[in-house]
Amino acid sequence: MRFSGLRVLKEGLTGNKGWTPHWRNPEPKAEYDVIIIGGGGHGLATAHYLASVHGITNVAVLEKGYLGGGNVGRNTTIVRANYGLPGNSEFYSHSLKLWEGLEEDLNYNVMHSQRGIINLFNSDGSRDAAARRGNQMASQGDDAQLLDTAALRKMLPYLDFDQTRFPIYGGLYHPRGGTARHDAVAWGFARAADQRGVDLIQQCEVTGIDVVDGVVKGVQTTRGPIRAKKIGITAAGRSSEVAAMAGMRLPIESHVLQAFVTEGLKPMIDTVITYEAGHFYISQSDKGGLVFGGSLDLYSSYASRGNLPMAEHVIESACTLMPAITKAKVLRSWGGIMDMSADGSPIIDKTHIDGLYVNCGWCYGGFKATPGSGHVFAHLMATGNPHRVATKHRLDRFRTGVGIMDEEASGSQHNLH
Ligand SMILES: Cc1cc2nc3c(=O)[nH]c(=O)nc-3n(C[C@H](O)[C@H](O)[C@H](O)COP(=O)(O)OP(=O)(O)OC[C@H]3O[C@@H](n4cnc5c(N)ncnc54)[C@H](O)[C@@H]3O)c2cc1C
User: Fold this and answer.
1) Centre of ligand 1 from the C-alpha of residue 121, in Å
2) Among 36, 37, 304, 343, which residue has the least CB neighbours within 10 Å?
3) What is the model's pLDDT at position 408?
4) Mean pLDDT of residues grouped by 10 in the chain (417 residues)?
5) Cα separation of 20 and 24, whole Å?
6) Cβ–ligand 1 contact at 346 (below 6 Å)
7) Separation of 71 CA from ligand 1 center, angstroms?
8) Would you say the CB of residue 236 lies under 6 angstroms from ligand 1?
9) Phi-psi region of 344 (alpha: psi -120 to 50; beta: other; left: phi over 0)
10) Is the CB of residue 340 below 6 angstroms from any atom belonging to ligand 1?
C-alpha cells in the first residue's frame, strides 16, 4: 500500500477500513544471506538500503523487544550536520542529505522538520570555537551563520540573555538542522524494508554468535538457531554484550542519557536551541510538549531510567536559560542506554571475524546519523569496502591510536563525550 493525500482522503471517507499492517510478522527462516542484530533505527536503515540499493533481500532483522523500543524511540530527535573533524564532517553531511529525501524514498511521513538549530555560546573562547566550527561546516558545503545577540534577541525573545551565570554572547545558526519524529523513522524504515522482502523478527533475542575457524556461521536466538553468511551488529547500548558473544571486547561503555517532556503548550519555540554552558538542549514537538535533555548520568549502567541529580541539573539549566519554563509541568522523563566510544565518534567496520561487522559508538548523537549509518553500513556489508564518507570510522583506531576522532577534545574518558 502506498501512502498519498488521495489515499488518506479515501480512507477518511470510507471508515479507515482499508489500511493494512505496516509490516508482516514472519517466522524466522533457517538461513539468511544477512542477519542484522538489533531492530533500532540503524539496523532497520541498514536492511532498507541493503535491499533498495544493493538488491540484497534475503535479510532478517532480529530484535529482542519490539521495533523502535530502543534509543530510536527515546531520543530528543535533533537532526544536524555540524561536525568539524574530517571523517565526521563528510559523514554527517551525507546523512543530512539522505534525510532531505527520506520521506519520498520511504513513502512515509517521518515529520522531518528543518526548523534550524541555534547553538548558543557564552564566552569569548566559545565564540571563537563556534566561528571555527561554522567555517568547517561551510567548507563541507553545509550551512552556518554566526549570530550576534541583537539577532538572537529577535529570534528567541524568551531567553534570559543577561543572566549572571552564563550570559549569552551569540549563537551559531544551522538552518538545515531540525527534528524528525523518532519512532516514525523506525516505522518508515521497517515498512520499506519489509516491502522489499526483509524479514523483521521481533521478540527474538540473539543469545550467541556462532564462529567456526574465524568465520561467522550464524546466531543462536530465543527462537532457535539461524544460519547466515554475514552478520551486522547494530545493538547500540548493548553492542558490547552482543560483540562479547563472538569473543570480542569493544571500546564502548554503556551510559544512561535522560530526556524530559512537558505538557503540551501553544507554539513557543520554533527552532532547536542548545545551551552550551549548561549543556542543555530544547525544542518543541508538533504536539506542543517542550522536549529537552542534558548530559549523561555519568556512570555506566544498563538501566533505561535516570537518576534524580541529573534531572535536577537539567531542569536548573532550563530555568536559567528560559525563566518562562518554570510555569510548565514536566509530564514524563525516561532514559536510554548510550553506546559511548572513547573518542566520541562511531565505529562502522569489519571485524577480525570473517563475515562479522560492527556499527556502534553513536554516543548521544546517533539519531541524526540513522539514514547515513544504514546507508554506509549496507555499502560495507554488501561490497566489503567502506563507503567513501565512512573510511575513518575504523575499529582499530582505538588499538593503534591512529585516526582518533575526538570531536570535543575531551580525552579518552567515554562519559565526557
Ligand atoms: C534520551 C536520549 C536523547 C537522545 N537525543 C538525540 C538527539 O537529539 N539526536 C541524535 O542524533 N541522537 C540522539 N540520541 C542518540 C540516538 O537515539 C542513538 O544514538 C541511536 O538511536 C542509536 O541507534 P539505534 O536507533 O539503532 O539504537 P536502538 O534503537 O537502541 O536499537 C538497538 C536495538 O538493538 C536491540 N538489541 C540489543 N541487544 C539485542 C540482542 N541481543 N538481540 C536482539 N536485539 C538486540 C535493542 O532492543 C534495540 O532495539 C539520544 C538518545 C537518548 C537515549
Assistant:
1) 28
2) 304
3) 86
4) 91 94 97 98 98 98 96 97 95 98 97 98 96 95 97 97 91 98 97 98 98 98 98 98 98 96 97 92 97 94 91 95 95 96 97 98 97 98 98 97 92 90
5) 10
6) no
7) 3
8) yes
9) left
10) no
Q: What is the three-class DSSP state of 213?
A: coil
Q: Which atom of ligand 1 is nearest to the CA of 362?
A: 19
Q: Whose CA is nearest to atom 35 of ligand 1?
A: 38
Q: How far is the CA of 370 from the centre of ligand 1 (A)?
A: 10
Give the chain's end-to-end CA distance (angstroms, integer): 43
pLDDT digits (tens, 9 = 90+) for 229-281: 999 999 999 999 999 999 999 999 999 999 999 999 999 999 999 998 888 99
Q: What pLDDT, in 10s, does the model give residues 285-320? A: 999 999 999 999 989 999 888 899 999 999 999 999
Q: Ligand 1, atom 41: nearest CA belongs to which residue?
A: 206
- Cα separation of 182 and 112, whole Å? 9
- The number of helix segments (H) and strand segments (E) in the chain equals 11, 18
Residue 146 pairs in a beta bridge with 172
Cell of 132: 571555527
**Residue 205 Cα: closest atom of ligand 1:** 42
User: What type of residue sits at position 145?
Assistant: Q
Q: Distance, CA 101 to ligand 1 centroid (Å)?
A: 22
Note whether 211 and 217 are within 8 A (CB). Answer: yes
- Classified as helix, coil or strand, 268 is coil
Q: CA 376 from chain center: how many Å?
A: 14
Q: Which of 49, 75, 281 to mutate to test the pocket of ligand 1 (most atoms within 8 A of CB)?
A: 75
Measured in Å, residue 229 CA sits from the centre of ligand 1 at 25
Q: Other C-beta atoms within 10 Å of 298: how many?
A: 13
Ligand 1 centroid distance, CA of 44 (Å): 12
> Cell triple for residue 276?
552550551
Place of cell 518554570: 326
**Predicted TM-score (pTM) above 0.90:** yes
CB atoms within 10 A of CB 132: 12
Q: Return d(Cα 82, Cα 94) in angstroms, integer.
A: 12
